[in-house]
Protein backbone atom coordinates (compact mmCIF):
# COMPACT_ATOMS: atom_id res chain seq x y z
CA UNK A 1 0.00 0.00 0.00
CA UNK A 2 2.88 2.31 0.86
CA UNK A 3 4.51 1.63 -2.52
CA UNK A 4 1.29 2.53 -4.33
CA UNK A 5 1.10 5.80 -2.42
CA UNK A 6 4.72 6.64 -3.28
CA UNK A 7 4.14 5.78 -6.93
CA UNK A 8 1.05 8.00 -7.09
CA UNK A 9 2.95 10.89 -5.51
CA UNK A 10 5.83 10.42 -7.93
CA UNK A 11 3.44 10.41 -10.90
CA UNK A 12 1.81 13.59 -9.61
CA UNK A 13 5.17 15.34 -9.22
CA UNK A 14 6.22 14.20 -12.68
CA UNK A 15 3.03 15.63 -14.14
CA UNK A 16 3.62 19.03 -12.58
CA UNK A 17 7.27 19.01 -13.64
CA UNK A 18 6.20 18.21 -17.21
CA UNK A 19 4.00 21.30 -17.17
CA UNK A 20 7.06 23.44 -16.38
CA UNK A 21 9.63 21.77 -18.61
CA UNK A 22 10.60 22.11 -22.27
CA UNK A 23 8.14 23.84 -24.55
CA UNK A 24 5.37 23.41 -21.97
CA UNK A 25 7.12 25.89 -19.68
CA UNK A 26 6.82 28.84 -22.06
CA UNK A 27 3.21 27.91 -22.86
CA UNK A 28 2.44 27.83 -19.14
CA UNK A 29 4.08 31.23 -18.75
CA UNK A 30 2.07 32.80 -21.58
CA UNK A 31 -1.31 31.39 -20.53
CA UNK A 32 -0.89 32.14 -16.83
CA UNK A 33 0.65 35.53 -17.72
CA UNK A 34 -2.43 36.56 -19.69
CA UNK A 35 -4.71 35.62 -16.81
CA UNK A 36 -2.41 37.34 -14.31
CA UNK A 37 -2.47 40.55 -16.35
CA UNK A 38 -6.27 40.58 -16.42
CA UNK A 39 -6.61 39.71 -12.73
CA UNK A 40 -3.93 42.11 -11.46
CA UNK A 41 -5.54 44.92 -13.43
CA UNK A 42 -8.90 44.29 -11.74
CA UNK A 43 -7.51 44.47 -8.20
CA UNK A 44 -5.02 47.27 -8.83
CA UNK A 45 -7.64 49.53 -10.43
CA UNK A 46 -10.18 48.82 -7.68
CA UNK A 47 -7.60 50.03 -5.17
CA UNK A 48 -6.56 53.21 -7.03
CA UNK A 49 -10.03 54.36 -8.14
CA UNK A 50 -10.57 56.61 -5.08
CA UNK A 51 -7.34 58.43 -6.06
CA UNK A 52 -8.57 58.71 -9.65
CA UNK A 53 -11.80 60.38 -8.53
CA UNK A 54 -9.96 62.81 -6.27
CA UNK A 55 -7.74 63.85 -9.18
CA UNK A 56 -10.05 64.06 -12.22
CA UNK A 57 -13.51 63.97 -10.60
CA UNK A 58 -16.41 61.84 -11.79
CA UNK A 59 -17.62 60.43 -8.47
CA UNK A 60 -21.12 60.00 -9.94
CA UNK A 61 -19.66 57.57 -12.48
CA UNK A 62 -17.49 55.67 -9.99
CA UNK A 63 -19.37 52.37 -10.29
CA UNK A 64 -19.34 52.53 -14.10
CA UNK A 65 -15.59 51.90 -14.09
CA UNK A 66 -16.36 48.35 -13.03
CA UNK A 67 -19.67 48.04 -14.89
CA UNK A 68 -18.22 48.85 -18.31
CA UNK A 69 -15.14 46.75 -17.66
CA UNK A 70 -17.22 43.66 -16.80
CA UNK A 71 -19.64 44.15 -19.69
CA UNK A 72 -16.76 44.50 -22.16
CA UNK A 73 -15.00 41.49 -20.62
CA UNK A 74 -18.05 39.33 -21.28
CA UNK A 75 -18.16 40.57 -24.85
CA UNK A 76 -14.47 39.80 -25.31
CA UNK A 77 -14.87 36.32 -23.85
CA UNK A 78 -17.83 35.60 -26.13
CA UNK A 79 -15.84 36.60 -29.23
CA UNK A 80 -12.60 34.87 -28.25
CA UNK A 81 -13.42 31.62 -30.07
CA UNK A 82 -13.93 33.49 -33.33
CA UNK A 83 -10.65 35.38 -32.88
CA UNK A 84 -8.84 32.12 -32.10
CA UNK A 85 -10.21 30.49 -35.25
CA UNK A 86 -9.30 33.46 -37.45
CA UNK A 87 -5.88 34.42 -36.05
CA UNK A 88 -4.56 31.25 -34.43
CA UNK A 89 -3.36 31.09 -30.82
CA UNK A 90 -0.33 33.35 -31.25
CA UNK A 91 -2.17 35.96 -33.30
CA UNK A 92 -5.20 35.93 -30.99
CA UNK A 93 -3.06 36.55 -27.92
CA UNK A 94 -1.21 39.36 -29.70
CA UNK A 95 -4.48 41.05 -30.71
CA UNK A 96 -5.88 40.66 -27.19
CA UNK A 97 -2.71 42.11 -25.67
CA UNK A 98 -2.77 45.04 -28.11
CA UNK A 99 -6.39 45.86 -27.23
CA UNK A 100 -5.60 45.62 -23.52
CA UNK A 101 -2.56 47.89 -23.97
CA UNK A 102 -4.61 50.51 -25.86
CA UNK A 103 -7.16 50.54 -23.05
CA UNK A 104 -4.43 50.89 -20.42
CA UNK A 105 -2.84 53.75 -22.38
CA UNK A 106 -6.20 55.54 -22.66
CA UNK A 107 -6.69 55.23 -18.89
CA UNK A 108 -3.18 56.48 -18.14
CA UNK A 109 -3.68 59.59 -20.29
CA UNK A 110 -7.35 60.29 -19.43
CA UNK A 111 -7.87 63.92 -18.30
CA UNK A 112 -11.54 63.37 -17.37
CA UNK A 113 -13.68 60.47 -16.19
CA UNK A 114 -15.62 59.84 -19.45
CA UNK A 115 -12.36 59.17 -21.30
CA UNK A 116 -11.14 56.93 -18.51
CA UNK A 117 -14.39 54.96 -18.71
CA UNK A 118 -13.78 54.48 -22.43
CA UNK A 119 -10.32 53.17 -21.65
CA UNK A 120 -11.74 50.81 -19.04
CA UNK A 121 -14.18 49.40 -21.59
CA UNK A 122 -11.33 48.76 -24.04
CA UNK A 123 -9.27 47.23 -21.23
CA UNK A 124 -12.18 44.99 -20.29
CA UNK A 125 -12.60 43.74 -23.85
CA UNK A 126 -8.91 42.87 -24.10
CA UNK A 127 -8.88 41.31 -20.64
CA UNK A 128 -11.93 39.19 -21.43
CA UNK A 129 -10.16 37.93 -24.56
CA UNK A 130 -7.02 37.06 -22.58
CA UNK A 131 -8.95 35.22 -19.88
CA UNK A 132 -11.12 33.19 -22.27
CA UNK A 133 -8.25 32.43 -24.66
CA UNK A 134 -6.40 30.64 -21.87
CA UNK A 135 -9.11 27.95 -21.70
CA UNK A 136 -9.25 27.68 -25.48
CA UNK A 137 -5.50 27.41 -25.98
CA UNK A 138 -4.86 24.90 -23.16
CA UNK A 139 -6.31 22.07 -25.23
CA UNK A 140 -4.25 23.17 -28.24
CA UNK A 141 -0.78 23.32 -26.68
CA UNK A 142 -0.89 20.69 -23.92
CA UNK A 143 -1.59 16.96 -24.08
CA UNK A 144 -4.86 15.87 -22.46
CA UNK A 145 -2.97 14.46 -19.46
CA UNK A 146 -1.90 18.01 -18.52
CA UNK A 147 -5.18 19.85 -19.09
CA UNK A 148 -6.36 19.65 -15.48
CA UNK A 149 -2.98 20.77 -14.13
CA UNK A 150 -2.86 23.70 -16.57
CA UNK A 151 -6.32 24.77 -15.41
CA UNK A 152 -5.13 24.46 -11.81
CA UNK A 153 -2.21 26.74 -12.66
CA UNK A 154 -4.62 29.37 -14.01
CA UNK A 155 -6.63 29.16 -10.78
CA UNK A 156 -3.46 29.58 -8.73
CA UNK A 157 -2.51 32.61 -10.83
CA UNK A 158 -5.86 34.27 -10.13
CA UNK A 159 -5.60 33.54 -6.40
CA UNK A 160 -2.13 35.07 -6.26
CA UNK A 161 -3.40 38.20 -8.02
CA UNK A 162 -6.07 38.52 -5.31
CA UNK A 163 -3.31 39.01 -2.75
CA UNK A 164 -0.77 40.93 -4.82
CA UNK A 165 -3.12 43.27 -6.73
CA UNK A 166 -4.46 45.30 -3.79
CA UNK A 167 -0.98 45.62 -2.31
CA UNK A 168 0.49 46.91 -5.59
CA UNK A 169 -2.46 49.23 -6.12
CA UNK A 170 -2.08 50.47 -2.55
CA UNK A 171 1.52 51.51 -3.23
CA UNK A 172 0.49 53.53 -6.29
CA UNK A 173 -2.39 55.10 -4.35
CA UNK A 174 -0.16 55.90 -1.37
CA UNK A 175 2.15 57.99 -3.56
CA UNK A 176 -0.67 59.56 -5.57
CA UNK A 177 0.63 57.90 -8.76
CA UNK A 178 -2.53 56.29 -10.06
CA UNK A 179 -1.53 56.94 -13.68
CA UNK A 180 1.65 54.95 -13.10
CA UNK A 181 -0.55 51.98 -12.21
CA UNK A 182 -1.81 51.93 -15.79
CA UNK A 183 1.59 52.73 -17.31
CA UNK A 184 3.11 49.79 -15.44
CA UNK A 185 0.83 47.37 -17.32
CA UNK A 186 2.21 48.34 -20.75
CA UNK A 187 5.65 46.66 -20.63
CA UNK A 188 4.09 43.51 -19.19
CA UNK A 189 1.58 43.47 -22.02
CA UNK A 190 4.33 43.94 -24.62
CA UNK A 191 6.31 41.01 -23.23
CA UNK A 192 3.18 38.84 -23.27
CA UNK A 193 2.44 39.70 -26.92
CA UNK A 194 6.02 38.96 -28.04
CA UNK A 195 6.12 35.63 -26.20
CA UNK A 196 2.73 34.61 -27.58
CA UNK A 197 3.62 35.44 -31.16
CA UNK A 198 6.94 33.62 -30.97
CA UNK A 199 5.82 30.47 -29.15
CA UNK A 200 2.11 29.75 -29.63
CA UNK A 201 0.82 28.03 -32.79
CA UNK A 202 -0.55 30.28 -35.53
CA UNK A 203 -2.64 27.63 -37.25
CA UNK A 204 -6.11 28.92 -38.12
CA UNK A 205 -9.27 26.92 -38.67
CA UNK A 206 -10.80 29.46 -41.03
CA UNK A 207 -14.11 29.11 -39.21
CA UNK A 208 -16.83 31.30 -40.61
CA UNK A 209 -20.47 31.94 -39.90
CA UNK A 210 -22.70 34.80 -38.80
CA UNK A 211 -21.93 36.66 -35.60
CA UNK A 212 -24.49 36.15 -32.81
CA UNK A 213 -25.14 39.90 -32.74
CA UNK A 214 -28.62 39.66 -31.25
CA UNK A 215 -27.48 37.41 -28.42
CA UNK A 216 -24.41 39.54 -27.71
CA UNK A 217 -26.52 42.70 -27.57
CA UNK A 218 -28.99 41.06 -25.20
CA UNK A 219 -26.17 39.68 -23.05
CA UNK A 220 -24.54 43.07 -22.62
CA UNK A 221 -27.96 44.63 -22.03
CA UNK A 222 -28.64 42.20 -19.20
CA UNK A 223 -25.29 42.96 -17.57
CA UNK A 224 -25.88 46.73 -17.77
CA UNK A 225 -29.43 46.44 -16.40
CA UNK A 226 -28.21 44.31 -13.50
CA UNK A 227 -25.33 46.67 -12.79
CA UNK A 228 -27.65 49.67 -12.68
CA UNK A 229 -30.10 47.75 -10.48
CA UNK A 230 -27.33 47.08 -7.98
CA UNK A 231 -26.79 50.83 -7.52
CA UNK A 232 -30.46 51.61 -6.83
CA UNK A 233 -31.70 52.01 -3.28
CA UNK A 234 -35.46 51.71 -3.71
CA UNK A 235 -36.69 48.14 -3.39
CA UNK A 236 -39.29 48.55 -6.13
CA UNK A 237 -36.64 49.87 -8.53
CA UNK A 238 -34.33 46.95 -7.81
CA UNK A 239 -37.10 44.40 -8.33
CA UNK A 240 -38.07 46.11 -11.59
CA UNK A 241 -34.46 46.02 -12.78
CA UNK A 242 -34.02 42.31 -12.02
CA UNK A 243 -37.40 41.57 -13.64
CA UNK A 244 -36.32 43.42 -16.78
CA UNK A 245 -33.09 41.41 -16.81
CA UNK A 246 -35.06 38.16 -16.55
CA UNK A 247 -37.25 39.19 -19.50
CA UNK A 248 -34.14 39.98 -21.54
CA UNK A 249 -32.69 36.62 -20.55
CA UNK A 250 -35.80 34.80 -21.77
CA UNK A 251 -35.51 36.66 -25.07
CA UNK A 252 -31.81 35.71 -25.20
CA UNK A 253 -32.60 32.01 -24.77
CA UNK A 254 -35.31 32.16 -27.44
CA UNK A 255 -32.95 33.95 -29.83
CA UNK A 256 -30.17 31.44 -29.21
CA UNK A 257 -32.48 28.52 -30.01
CA UNK A 258 -33.40 29.79 -33.47
CA UNK A 259 -30.31 31.80 -34.47
CA UNK A 260 -28.05 30.74 -37.33
CA UNK A 261 -25.05 32.19 -35.50
CA UNK A 262 -24.97 30.76 -31.97
CA UNK A 263 -23.33 32.09 -28.84
CA UNK A 264 -23.06 28.60 -27.31
CA UNK A 265 -22.18 25.25 -28.88
CA UNK A 266 -24.90 23.39 -30.73
CA UNK A 267 -27.38 21.55 -28.52
CA UNK A 268 -26.31 23.28 -25.30
CA UNK A 269 -29.84 24.42 -24.44
CA UNK A 270 -31.21 20.87 -24.65
CA UNK A 271 -32.04 19.56 -21.15
CA UNK A 272 -30.18 16.33 -21.93
CA UNK A 273 -27.05 18.08 -23.12
CA UNK A 274 -23.95 17.35 -21.00
CA UNK A 275 -22.82 20.92 -21.64
CA UNK A 276 -26.09 22.26 -20.21
CA UNK A 277 -25.44 20.50 -16.89
CA UNK A 278 -21.78 21.55 -16.81
CA UNK A 279 -22.51 25.19 -17.62
CA UNK A 280 -25.32 25.23 -15.03
CA UNK A 281 -22.88 23.92 -12.42
CA UNK A 282 -20.40 26.67 -13.32
CA UNK A 283 -23.09 29.37 -13.19
CA UNK A 284 -24.49 28.23 -9.83
CA UNK A 285 -21.00 28.04 -8.34
CA UNK A 286 -20.25 31.61 -9.40
CA UNK A 287 -23.60 32.92 -8.15
CA UNK A 288 -23.02 31.28 -4.77
CA UNK A 289 -19.67 33.02 -4.47
CA UNK A 290 -20.94 36.59 -4.89
CA UNK A 291 -21.96 37.39 -1.27
CA UNK A 292 -18.19 37.63 -0.78
CA UNK A 293 -18.41 41.28 -1.81
CA UNK A 294 -20.12 42.05 1.51
CA UNK A 295 -17.67 40.13 3.72
CA UNK A 296 -15.28 43.08 4.29
CA UNK A 297 -18.17 45.43 5.16
CA UNK A 298 -19.79 42.95 7.56
CA UNK A 299 -16.49 42.19 9.28
CA UNK A 300 -15.88 45.89 9.84
CA UNK A 301 -19.42 46.78 10.92
CA UNK A 302 -20.23 43.73 13.04
CA UNK A 303 -16.82 42.72 14.36
CA UNK A 304 -14.72 45.88 14.29
CA UNK A 305 -12.01 44.50 12.01
CA UNK A 306 -9.77 46.94 10.17
CA UNK A 307 -10.21 47.34 6.40
CA UNK A 308 -6.91 45.54 5.78
CA UNK A 309 -7.76 42.57 8.00
CA UNK A 310 -11.31 42.38 6.66
CA UNK A 311 -10.03 42.46 3.09
CA UNK A 312 -7.60 39.62 3.61
CA UNK A 313 -10.17 37.49 5.43
CA UNK A 314 -12.46 37.96 2.41
CA UNK A 315 -9.54 36.92 0.19
CA UNK A 316 -9.64 33.48 1.86
CA UNK A 317 -12.37 32.59 -0.62
CA UNK A 318 -10.05 33.16 -3.57
CA UNK A 319 -7.20 31.40 -1.78
CA UNK A 320 -9.55 28.50 -1.09
CA UNK A 321 -10.25 28.30 -4.83
CA UNK A 322 -6.51 28.12 -5.51
CA UNK A 323 -5.98 25.48 -2.81
CA UNK A 324 -8.86 23.39 -4.15
CA UNK A 325 -7.56 23.50 -7.71
CA UNK A 326 -4.01 22.64 -6.72
CA UNK A 327 -5.30 19.79 -4.56
CA UNK A 328 -7.33 18.05 -7.26
CA UNK A 329 -5.64 19.08 -10.51
CA UNK A 330 -3.51 15.90 -10.65
CA UNK A 331 -6.38 13.53 -9.83
CA UNK A 332 -7.58 11.25 -12.57
CA UNK A 333 -10.37 8.79 -13.41
CA UNK A 334 -13.29 8.35 -11.04
CA UNK A 335 -11.61 10.40 -8.33
CA UNK A 336 -11.46 13.39 -10.65
CA UNK A 337 -15.05 12.93 -11.81
CA UNK A 338 -16.31 12.88 -8.22
CA UNK A 339 -14.91 16.37 -7.59
CA UNK A 340 -17.60 17.80 -9.88
CA UNK A 341 -20.23 16.58 -7.41
CA UNK A 342 -18.18 17.14 -4.24
CA UNK A 343 -17.42 20.79 -4.99
CA UNK A 344 -20.95 22.15 -4.43
CA UNK A 345 -21.14 20.34 -1.06
CA UNK A 346 -18.21 22.40 0.19
CA UNK A 347 -19.90 25.56 -1.11
CA UNK A 348 -23.16 24.70 0.64
CA UNK A 349 -21.43 23.92 3.94
CA UNK A 350 -19.32 27.07 3.71
CA UNK A 351 -22.21 29.46 3.05
CA UNK A 352 -24.33 27.94 5.83
CA UNK A 353 -21.37 28.25 8.21
CA UNK A 354 -20.93 31.94 7.35
CA UNK A 355 -24.68 32.52 7.78
CA UNK A 356 -24.51 30.91 11.23
CA UNK A 357 -21.40 32.66 12.59
CA UNK A 358 -21.14 36.06 10.86
CA UNK A 359 -24.13 37.58 12.75
CA UNK A 360 -22.81 36.53 16.20
CA UNK A 361 -21.40 39.63 17.88
CA UNK A 362 -21.97 38.96 21.58
CA UNK A 363 -19.26 36.30 21.93
CA UNK A 364 -16.47 38.42 20.45
CA UNK A 365 -14.64 37.89 17.18
CA UNK A 366 -12.08 35.47 18.62
CA UNK A 367 -14.84 32.97 19.39
CA UNK A 368 -16.09 32.84 15.80
CA UNK A 369 -12.92 33.62 13.82
CA UNK A 370 -11.91 30.02 13.09
CA UNK A 371 -15.28 28.64 11.89
CA UNK A 372 -16.00 31.86 10.00
CA UNK A 373 -12.65 31.79 8.18
CA UNK A 374 -13.06 28.08 7.45
CA UNK A 375 -16.53 28.74 6.01
CA UNK A 376 -15.24 31.51 3.75
CA UNK A 377 -12.36 29.36 2.55
CA UNK A 378 -14.66 26.34 2.04
CA UNK A 379 -16.79 28.20 -0.52
CA UNK A 380 -13.76 28.88 -2.69
CA UNK A 381 -12.23 25.46 -2.02
CA UNK A 382 -15.32 23.69 -3.32
CA UNK A 383 -15.29 25.61 -6.59
CA UNK A 384 -11.54 25.15 -6.98
CA UNK A 385 -11.71 21.43 -6.22
CA UNK A 386 -14.15 20.86 -9.08
CA UNK A 387 -12.92 23.53 -11.48
CA UNK A 388 -10.11 21.69 -13.34
CA UNK A 389 -12.38 18.72 -13.96
CA UNK A 390 -15.45 20.73 -14.90
CA UNK A 391 -13.40 22.52 -17.55
CA UNK A 392 -11.87 19.30 -18.89
CA UNK A 393 -15.37 17.78 -18.92
CA UNK A 394 -16.50 20.68 -21.10
CA UNK A 395 -13.64 19.88 -23.47
CA UNK A 396 -14.77 16.24 -23.60
CA UNK A 397 -18.45 17.06 -24.14
CA UNK A 398 -17.94 19.73 -26.82
CA UNK A 399 -19.43 18.89 -30.25
CA UNK A 400 -16.86 18.16 -32.93
CA UNK A 401 -15.74 21.40 -34.57
CA UNK A 402 -17.01 23.59 -31.70
CA UNK A 403 -14.32 22.91 -29.13
CA UNK A 404 -13.08 26.53 -29.12
CA UNK A 405 -16.60 27.88 -28.72
CA UNK A 406 -17.27 25.49 -25.83
CA UNK A 407 -14.06 26.57 -24.09
CA UNK A 408 -14.78 30.29 -24.61
CA UNK A 409 -18.29 29.84 -23.25
CA UNK A 410 -16.82 28.83 -19.89
CA UNK A 411 -15.57 32.37 -19.31
CA UNK A 412 -18.67 33.97 -20.81
CA UNK A 413 -20.94 32.06 -18.44
CA UNK A 414 -18.57 32.56 -15.51
CA UNK A 415 -18.51 36.35 -15.90
CA UNK A 416 -22.23 36.61 -16.66
CA UNK A 417 -23.17 34.51 -13.61
CA UNK A 418 -20.89 36.62 -11.42
CA UNK A 419 -22.66 39.80 -12.62
CA UNK A 420 -26.06 38.25 -11.98
CA UNK A 421 -25.01 37.04 -8.55
CA UNK A 422 -23.55 40.42 -7.57
CA UNK A 423 -26.80 42.19 -8.53
CA UNK A 424 -28.91 39.67 -6.62
CA UNK A 425 -26.59 39.97 -3.62
CA UNK A 426 -27.02 43.75 -3.65
CA UNK A 427 -30.79 43.46 -3.81
CA UNK A 428 -30.88 40.85 -1.04
CA UNK A 429 -28.64 42.90 1.26
CA UNK A 430 -30.74 46.04 0.75
CA UNK A 431 -34.02 44.21 1.30
CA UNK A 432 -32.57 42.68 4.48
CA UNK A 433 -31.77 46.12 5.90
CA UNK A 434 -28.06 46.65 5.31
CA UNK A 435 -28.80 50.22 4.21
CA UNK A 436 -30.02 51.12 7.71
CA UNK A 437 -26.41 51.48 8.81
CA UNK A 438 -27.08 49.62 12.08
CA UNK A 439 -25.65 46.44 13.56
CA UNK A 440 -29.11 44.90 13.48
CA UNK A 441 -29.46 45.65 9.76
CA UNK A 442 -25.99 44.25 9.00
CA UNK A 443 -26.72 41.13 11.06
CA UNK A 444 -30.02 40.56 9.25
CA UNK A 445 -28.28 41.04 5.88
CA UNK A 446 -25.62 38.46 6.81
CA UNK A 447 -28.24 35.84 7.64
CA UNK A 448 -30.28 36.43 4.49
CA UNK A 449 -27.32 36.83 2.15
CA UNK A 450 -25.43 33.69 2.99
CA UNK A 451 -28.46 31.61 3.92
CA UNK A 452 -30.37 32.43 0.73
CA UNK A 453 -27.35 32.11 -1.55
CA UNK A 454 -26.73 28.63 -0.15
CA UNK A 455 -29.52 27.62 -2.54
CA UNK A 456 -27.08 28.08 -5.43
CA UNK A 457 -24.65 25.27 -4.45
CA UNK A 458 -27.62 23.18 -3.31
CA UNK A 459 -28.99 23.34 -6.85
CA UNK A 460 -25.45 22.90 -8.10
CA UNK A 461 -25.31 19.48 -6.45
CA UNK A 462 -28.17 18.32 -8.68
CA UNK A 463 -26.67 19.75 -11.87
CA UNK A 464 -23.23 18.35 -10.95
CA UNK A 465 -24.69 14.88 -10.47
CA UNK A 466 -26.37 15.12 -13.84
CA UNK A 467 -23.11 16.22 -15.44
CA UNK A 468 -20.90 13.57 -13.84
CA UNK A 469 -23.40 10.82 -14.76
CA UNK A 470 -23.22 11.69 -18.45
CA UNK A 471 -21.52 9.15 -20.70
CA UNK A 472 -19.16 11.78 -22.16
CA UNK A 473 -17.71 12.43 -18.72
CA UNK A 474 -17.54 8.73 -17.90
CA UNK A 475 -15.76 8.06 -21.20
CA UNK A 476 -13.26 10.74 -20.27
CA UNK A 477 -12.58 8.81 -17.05
CA UNK A 478 -11.68 5.68 -19.02
CA UNK A 479 -9.19 7.63 -21.14
Task: Please specify the SSE layout and strand pairing.
Layout: H1 2-19, H2 22-56, H3 64-109, H4 113-141, H5 147-174, H6 178-183, H7 185-199, H8 213-231, H9 235-258, H10 274-289, H11 295-303, H12 307-314, H13 316-328, H14 333-357, H15 365-397, H16 403-431, H17 439-453, H18 455-468, H19 471-478
Pfam families: MFS_1
Protein name: MFS transporter
Domain Major facilitator superfamily (MFS) profile: 27-469
Please describe what this structure looks like.
This protein is globular. Helix 14 runs antiparallel to helix 17 and helix 14 packs across helix 19. The chain is mainly α and 479 residues long. The N terminus is likely disordered. Helices cover 81% and strands 0% of the residues. The two termini are 24 Å apart. The protein contains 19 helices and no strands.
- Class by alpha and beta content: mainly alpha
Radius of gyration: 22 Å
Sheet with most strands:
none
Mean pLDDT, nearest integer? 87
Oligomer: single chain
Strand content: under 5%
Envelope shape: globular
Order of helices and strands: HHHHHHHHHHHHHHHHHHH
State the separation between the terminal residues, measured CA to CA: 24 Å
Domain Major facilitator superfamily (MFS) profile: 27-469
Membrane topology: Multi-pass membrane protein
Transmembrane segments: 29-49, 61-85, 92-115, 121-138, 150-168, 180-200, 212-232, 238-255, 276-297, 309-331, 343-368, 374-398, 410-433, 445-464
Organism: Sinorhizobium garamanticum
Amino acid sequence: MLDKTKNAAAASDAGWLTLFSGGNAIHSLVLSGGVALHALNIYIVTTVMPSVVRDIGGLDYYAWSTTLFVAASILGAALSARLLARAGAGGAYAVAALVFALGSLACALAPVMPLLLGGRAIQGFGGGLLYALAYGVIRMVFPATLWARAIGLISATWGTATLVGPAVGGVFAEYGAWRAAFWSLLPLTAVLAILALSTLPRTTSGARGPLPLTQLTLLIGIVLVLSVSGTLTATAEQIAGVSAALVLFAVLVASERRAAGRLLPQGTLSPRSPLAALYATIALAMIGMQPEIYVPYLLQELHGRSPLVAGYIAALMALGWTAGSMTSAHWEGGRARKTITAGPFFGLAGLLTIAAFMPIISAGFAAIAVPLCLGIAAVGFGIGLAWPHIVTAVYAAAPVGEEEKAAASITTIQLFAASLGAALAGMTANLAGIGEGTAQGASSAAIWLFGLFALAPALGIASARSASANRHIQNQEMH
